[in-house]
């Protein structure tokens, strides 16, 4: 069954840059919001009806799940960029090779994690110091989650490569179906309503498993029925044999991107340990503010992800002016969308914080105070996220990692620790805008003067001419065209060398 050529609405190399970027980013943003709301609703069911120990159990188990998903985040980003570059170059054959190799890698990794995690679930939770009263509940929940890992990884992977191909709408629609199913199945399996068995806390994890199984099956059936360009049929299973060059790129380029998530998680742990030292009131206020920040950072993350895919397609097409226009549009959209949220939360902060804190709590005023100091840092964070996404679209993944490491561990954590004698708890809150401003400055400097335009995802031979497949109806093209000449120190134009 021949694959259809990509539809025009999947082309991120055409049309008004700002409008194309916003339209592409909105489904990603909506998906992020849906996932957060799903987690919140499930937490309400477990916490209110099964008790605090059950909520503690799901929190500990979900921390492990988030770590596992974060560990493959970078590899998923690498696959997304490779697919986007190939689609931008109209090299469908290369995009399908990336799809096949990535699918084998993701599914193989997920099955291995599930096989190792199932017998070690209790040991992992004990190592995390899970409270004794929550340990049996957490183990029951985590075992089902490990069974769900292959499906969760597969759904995340397919969604990522579809976005790389320029289609953010399809992953969102199927994610919305998964969220609705998860929310609907939760009480049925928790309490055994109707024909459903009463599974208790394991029912919450089983709802997630079943919803994702159904969602993934429906998504794959949709791609097959629509003859999506990236669908690999029965007669094309050779594409599932890993290509060594692509596999190497997934690991070499993906690991540094994944390490960024690790650095962020570790810095948050370091900050929380310092916050706890100022008492439960401060900790509660910080926790309430974090709930608001989860939503404030979503526009920047969605725009950054969209900008990365859009820039990668234009890198593949050799349209460098459009790559730079994507960066400018992304920064402008970040200020508009994130700025609107920041202003709204500052004006309505007392009302918003009371959603998470009891009436009359002293933590409300603490949260308002720290929020007024720190929330503006998400404007800087958004610029960094967008610019880094554009930079990574060529394959330059190590410099953003180093700059983030410097901003977090060279500025944020030391500032929060060593400025306490002068600023007290405010040192923790001021550490956010200070480090975010440093990160933004470094990112903009590297974008302007760094060598990211010369980076390659697959190495120096990536720019060799590759014929586009016949079904696209194009002439042979190059996978990655040369970037525009850059001025040297004396102002003379020079073309960056390959490699």
Automatic annotation (TrEMBL):
It is a multi-pass membrane protein. The chain crosses the membrane at residues 21-44, 64-86, 98-120, 140-160, 172-193, 199-221, 292-311, 331-353, 373-391, 398-415, 427-447. InterPro entries: MATE_fam (IPR002528), MdtK-like (IPR048279), Membrane_Transporter-Flippase (IPR052031). The keyword Transmembrane helix applies. GO terms for cellular component: plasma membrane. The keyword Lipid biosynthesis does not apply. Pfam families: MatE. It is found in: Cell inner membrane. One of its GO terms (molecular function) is antiporter activity. Keywords: Cell membrane, Membrane, Transmembrane, Transmembrane helix, Transport. It comes from the Bacteria. Residues 465-499 are annotated as: Disordered. Coiled coil: none annotated. This is MATE family efflux transporter. It comes from Coralloluteibacterium stylophorae.
């Amino acid at each position: 069954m021949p694959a259809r050529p990509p539809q025009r609405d999947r082309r991120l190399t055409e049309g008004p840059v700002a409008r194309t970027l916003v339209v592409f980013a909105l489904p990603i943003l909506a998906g992020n919001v849906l996932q957060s709301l799903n987690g919140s609703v499930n937490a309400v069911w477990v916490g209110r009806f099964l008790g605090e120990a059950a909520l503690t159990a799901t929190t500990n188990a979900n921390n492990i799940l988030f770590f596992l998903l974060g560990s493959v985040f970078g590899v998923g980003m690498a696959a997304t960029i490779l697919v986007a570059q190939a689609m931008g170059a109209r090299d469908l054959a290369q995009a399908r090779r990336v799809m096949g190799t990535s699918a084998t890698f993701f599914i193989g990794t997920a099955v291995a994690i599930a096989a190792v995690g199932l017998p070690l679930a209790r040991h992992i939770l004990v190592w995390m110091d899970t409270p004794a009263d929550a340990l049996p509940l957490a183990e029951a929940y985590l075992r089902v989650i490990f069974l769900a890992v292959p499906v969760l990884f597969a759904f995340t992977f397919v969604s990522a490569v579809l976005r790389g191909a320029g289609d953010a709408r399809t992953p969102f629609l199927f994610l919305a179906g998964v969220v609705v199913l998860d929310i609907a199945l939760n009480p049925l399996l928790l309490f055994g309503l109707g024909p459903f068995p009463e599974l208790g806390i394991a029912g919450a994890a089983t709802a997630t498993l079943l919803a994702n199984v159904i969602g993934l099956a429906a998504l794959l059936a949709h791609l097959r029925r629509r003859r999506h360009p990236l669908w690999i049929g029965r007669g094309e299973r050779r594409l599932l044999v890993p290509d060594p060059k692509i596999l190497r790129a997934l690991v070499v380029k993906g690991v540094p991107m994944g390490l960024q998530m690790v650095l962020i998680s570790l810095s948050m742990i370091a900050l929380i340990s310092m916050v706890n030292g100022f008492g439960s009131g401060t900790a509660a206020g910080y926790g309430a503010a974090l709930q608001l920040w989860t939503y404030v950072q979503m526009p920047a993350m969605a725009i950054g992800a969209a900008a990365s895919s859009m820039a990668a397609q234009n890198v593949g097409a050799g349209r460098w002016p459009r790559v730079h226009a994507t960066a400018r549009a992304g920064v402008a959209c970040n200020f508009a969308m994130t700025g609107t949220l920041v202003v709204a939360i500052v004006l309505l902060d007392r009302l918003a914080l009371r959603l998470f804190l009891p009436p009359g709590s002293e933590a409300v005023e603490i949260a308002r105070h720290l929020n007024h100091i720190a929330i503006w840092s998400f404007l800087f964070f958004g610029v960094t996220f967008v610019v880094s996404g554009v930079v990574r679209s060529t394959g330059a993944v190590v410099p953003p990692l180093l700059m983030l490491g410097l901003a977090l561990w060279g500025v944020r954590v030391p500032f929060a620790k060593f400025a306490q004698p002068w600023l007290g708890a405010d040192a923790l809150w001021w550490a956010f805008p200070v480090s975010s401003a440093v990160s933004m400055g470094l990112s903009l400097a590297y974008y302007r003067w760094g060598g990211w335009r010369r980076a390659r995802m697959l190495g120096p031979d990536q720019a060799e001419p590759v014929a586009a497949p016949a079904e696209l109806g194009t002439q042979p093209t190059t996978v990655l065209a040369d970037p525009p000449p850059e001025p040297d120190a004396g102002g003379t134009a020079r073309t960056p060398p390959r490699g």
